[in-house]
Amino acid sequence: MRVKHRGAKNLKQSDFVIIAMVTILVIFGVVMVFSASYYKSINDSGSPYSYLIKQGVFALTGFVIMGVCARLDYHIFRRLSILILGVSLLLLLLVLTPLGVEEGGATRALYIGFTIMPGEIAKIAVIIFTASYLASDPRIILSFSRGVLPLLLLMGVFGGLIIKQPNLSTAITVCGIIAGIMFLAGLQWKYVIGAMIAGGGGIFGLIMIGDKIGAEHWSKRFTSFLDPFADALGDGFQVVQSLLALGSGGLFGLGLGKSIQKNLYLPEPQNDFILAIIGEELGFIGLLALIVVYVVLIWRCFHVCLNAPDRFGMLLSGGITIMIGLQVILNIAVVTSSMPPTGIALPFVSYGGNALWIFMASAGMVLNISRQSSGGAPAERKPEKRR
After folding, report:
1. Residue 270: pLDDT above 80?
2. How much of the chain is in helix, strand and coil states, percent to nearest 5?
C-alpha cells in the first residue's frame, strides 16, 4: 500500500511541475512577444496586436497538442519512427525546390496554405528515430558499424540539408540532439573525444580558409562575434543592438513595454533575439528568473528520463530534454555574443507556431512517459527487442 501511495504522489508531482513550468513559459512568451513586436507590428500591419493575436492562437492550439500527446501512449511514436523520419526528410528536400519560401536571404520554410518549418520538424523526428533505433538493442551503441556509423550518416544527411537552407543553428541542434542521445545510450568516450577534435578542427579550418573554398559567409559568421563592434553596421549589427539592449536593462530593467531597441533598431525582436528585449525591459533579475524556470523544467524532464519505464522512454525523454537545454544555451550564447550569430528560437517564448507546437508536443510526450513510470495505467509494455 505504501508503494502505491508513493507512486501516485510522484505522478502528481511530475505532471504538475512540468505543466506549471511550460505554462509559465508560454504565457510569459505571449506577453513578451506582444511587447517586443509592438512597433514592428504597427510598421508591418498598422495594428500593434497582429503578433499578439497570432502567438495567442499558437499558444492555445499548443496546449491542445500537448494535452493530446500527454494522453497518447508514447510507444506509438516508436512504431511510426521510420515514417516520421521519412516525412521529415522529404520536407527538407522540398525546401530546396521552388516550393521553398525565401525570407531574409534563407530558404527555410514551405507554404501550403500555412507555413511549415521542416527544420523544426527534423528535431523531433531525429529524437524519435534515434531513440527507437538505440532502444532495439542496449549493446548496439558499442558497435561502430551497427550503432555509431548509421547515426553519423543520419547527422550528415540531415545536418547537410539544413545547412543548405542555410540554417547553421538548427543543423547544430539536430546533430547535437543525435549525439546527446547516443551518449545517453552508452557511447564510448573515444568517439566523443574524437568528435570534439574533428568538430573543433573543422571550425578552425573554416575560419582560416573559408574565403578560399567559397565559404566566406560562414567564415565571417564564426569571427564576427569576437568583435561585433568592428562591423557594427554590417555582420555585427544584430548582435550590437542585442548587447545595447542588455546593457540598457541593467539590474532591474527599464520596465515592461519600455524597450528602446524594439523601436525598429533590433531586427525581428520577437523571434531569435527576444531574450535581449526581456533583458532590457526586466533586467538581470528578470533574465535570472527566466533561467531558473528553464532549469526547473530541464531538471524535471531529466528526472522523468531517469525514471522512464523502458529504454525507449528513457532515450525519448532524454532527447527532448537535450533539445530544450541545448536551444536555451545556444540562444543565450548568441544574444550575449558568446558564439556566432545564427537564428535559434528561445523554447516556448520566441514567436512562431512551428517551434512552439514542436516544443509543446515534446512536453506532452514527456508527460506521458512520466505517467507510465509513476504508477499510472500504461498502455502496452512490450519487452525490448534484442538482436
Report:
1. yes
2. 70, 5, 25
The answer to whether the beta carbons of residues 365 and 69 sit under 8 Å apart is yes
pLDDT tens digit string along 222-249?
656 666 766 666 667 788 888 888 988 8
Name the strand (E) or helix (H) holding 110.
strand 106-111
Q: Which residues of 186-210 are buried (b: 16+ CB within 10 A; e: fewer)?
A: ebeeebeeebeeeeeeeeeebbeeb
Grid look-up 528513457 returns 314
The phi, psi pair for 298, rounded to 5°, reads -65, -40
With 0.85 as the threshold, say if the pTM is over it.
yes
- Classified as helix, coil or strand, 103 is strand
Q: Does residue 206 have a pLDDT over 60?
A: no
Q: How many CB atoms lie within 10 A of CB 66?
A: 25
Neighbours of 33 (CB within 10 A): 27
Coil, helix or strand at residue 111: strand
Instruction: State yes or no: pLDDT of 251 exceeds 70.
Output: yes
Residue written as grid cell 547527422: 155
Residues 6 or more apart whose Cβ sits within 8 Å of residue 5: none
Query: If we measure between CA atoms, which residue out of 162, 182, 178, 62 comes closest to residue 120?
Result: 162
Handedness of CA 106, 109, 115, 119 (dihedral sign): negative
Cβ neighbours around 29 below 10 Å, total: 23
